[in-house]
Amino acid sequence: MKYYLLPLGCQMNQSDTGRVRTVLQNMGFVPTDNEEEATILGVIACSVRQKGIDKVYGRIEKWNAMKNRQNVITFVSGCILPADRLRFLKLFDLVFPMNELPNFPDMIRQYGIVTPASLQCGEEIETQPVVRPLEPLFHKHDVVNPSANMDRFWAICPQQQSTFEAFIPIQNGCNKFCTYCAVPYTRGREVSRSSDDIIAELKDLVEKGYKSITLLGQNVNSYGLDKEGKEINFAELLRRVGEYGKASGKEFWVYFTSPHPRDMTDEVIEVISQYDCLGKQIHIPIQSGDDAMLQRMNRHHDLERYRHIIQTIRRLLPTATIFTDIIVGFTHETEEEFENTRKAMEEFKYNMAYIAQYSVREGAVASKWPDDVTKETKRQRYHILTDELMKHSMVYNQGLVGTTVKMLVENFDRKNGYLAGHTEGKIVIRFASEDTSLIGQIVKVKVTDATPLSIEGELLV
User: Are residues 283 and 257 in contact, defined by beta-carbon separation less than 8 angstroms?
Assistant: First the structure.
């Protein structure tokens, strides 16, 4: 018996999917990329953007049509807004929050699906299992924090999709309530994972040969604040990672995403500067370069605070690359406010910016406000900021020509005869080779050419 999973959205959802795979495989199911072969079909959904929800509706329509010719069970979990959840209850067989994943085997058994694991135990079964309705768990948990009781979920060992790159959740949920964002309503309040468990998982991955490990959370640098006095803070967590890396003698890079400027301390940046294994790449969302806009977004910081963070990174981590997130066309965004964002990009000279055109998310505070910036204006502003990004990233990448950089080889490049990956600063890089034994290894490359978003070089032996 087989299962099919469709993970959507951010790296946290991708990481959560690894634990879903573990639960299903422990039940005896095997993965398939062919939906027609599957007995269990699941989506790890993302309500943060409408595009992700549209994909869910498209897929469940197809799956429900399959029920006319075969016995299948459908489920959905992940980041789900209350309004989407209510709609999903009418479409999926099972709808549950991710913290209920440890109970998933019981849900399946209640629904009448006989698992391969139970067959191996000699359980008496009917040839055709009876499918009977099960009350979706979300009916019982509408007012419960989706971040509650996460320890049982985190205790599940995830099935990694790569042999050299992995993600470790360290925190779940968000207390910030940015007015454009749905995450506090999909993942609940901030809950920190045990630092001992985090370090143990990281050590296990490094011993298995993983080279790139990312610590995940909605607000990683607020780690430990919900357990003040009982748990270490984020800077100390990074220090313990760094100390292990130094003692291990192994080469690997540890990253984190996403931090919030409100909680980013100088101490975090100082710790990163002290350890080779802590990757010299910082993702620090700005969202807007205008103070009035930041207040409307409820970001809890101003441009001067953000500027201090960038200046501290440049001073203590001179080789670090800096990535960011920006929203254009948020409610009431004026030309002056947009221009201040463009000026901020010009000042901070990002290596990468993930620029989103604002779209209303039902449930977020701003969903009650007028979406009064036209689509055409949003597109224009998006292209202006993209051009600004390209200008500064090109200057940086051209500065790498002639230097030697380390990179993690990840896969074949789209360019025939080339392998590709990322530098420590997560700059896309390629070199001519078809030696598959290099995939998953950190190698040295001399940079010979540059474009705004990537570099090319020659492998050094």
Answer: yes
What is the share, in percent, of the chain residues with pLDDT greater than 90?
Answer: 80
pLDDT of residue 230: 94
Quick one: tokens of 132? 């009977």
Residue 203: both structure tokens together: 């050590």
Q: How is 160-171 classified by DSSP, letter by letter?
A: -S-SSEEEEE-E
Whats the size of the chain, residue-wise?
A: 461
> Cα(316)–Cα(194) distance, rounded to whole angstroms?
29
Closest to 25 (Cα-Cα) out of 161, 220, 159, 125:
159
N-to-C CA span, the chain: 47
Peptide linkage before 258 cis (omega within 30 of 0): yes
Q: For 423, phi and psi rounded to 5 degrees?
A: -75, 175
pLDDT tens, position by position, 113-157:
656 655 444 443 333 333 444 444 443 334 346 667 899 999 999
Cα separation of 249 and 190, whole Å? 34
* pLDDT for position 92: 95
